[in-house]
Amino acid sequence: MSDEHEVLTYDAFGTACRELAQAVADDGYRPDMVLAIARGGLGLGMGLGYALAVKNLSVVNVEFYTGIDERLDVPIMLPPTPAVVDLSGLRILIADDVADTGRTLEIVHEFVADHVAEARTAVIYAKPHSVIKPDYVWRRTARWIDFPWSVLPPVVDPDALGH
């Protein structure tokens, strides 16, 4: 592991999912739904869903990062978004890979807050300057994180696909 980067392996990711799920269970929180923030939170959302025996999984897509340490001015929720009526009265666990600035978690938490019975957040990593203090954190770091799913370039040219 370099001084500049925190490196997450797929093996450690599996451990992180399980340990986060155990922390949620030990806390007595029983979510009705896991709401994963795409793209980074998809794997964690699936892992938490299985480990917590929650079959009701949903996804919200938020665009914020455009490159390594490059981001938009504000996070943007992209359609389709979950219908708030489908969230009414539920206990939600919002899952993402990292609370860096925390603004992505903040926008999703604000989106569901007035509609759910309770919303808590779970992340693999939290950074000290995050505006949101997640309820469940596997590790804390101030370093840039190399996630196994995003450290290598795509196998296709995104520009050729019109992305």
TrEMBL record:
Highest rank taxon of the organism: Bacteria
Transferase recorded as keyword: yes
GO terms for MF: glycosyltransferase activity
Keyword Secreted: no
Pfam families: Pribosyltran
The Phosphoribosyltransferase domain, residue ranges: 10-151
Parts of the chain that traverse the membrane: none
InterPro entries xrefs: PRTase-like, PRTase_dom
Keywords: Glycosyltransferase, Transferase
PANTHER family (UniProt xref): HYPOXANTHINE PHOSPHORIBOSYLTRANSFERASE, HYPOXANTHINE-GUANINE PHOSPHORIBOSYLTRANSFERASE
Protein name: Phosphoribosyltransferase
Organism from which the protein derives: Nocardioides guangzhouensis
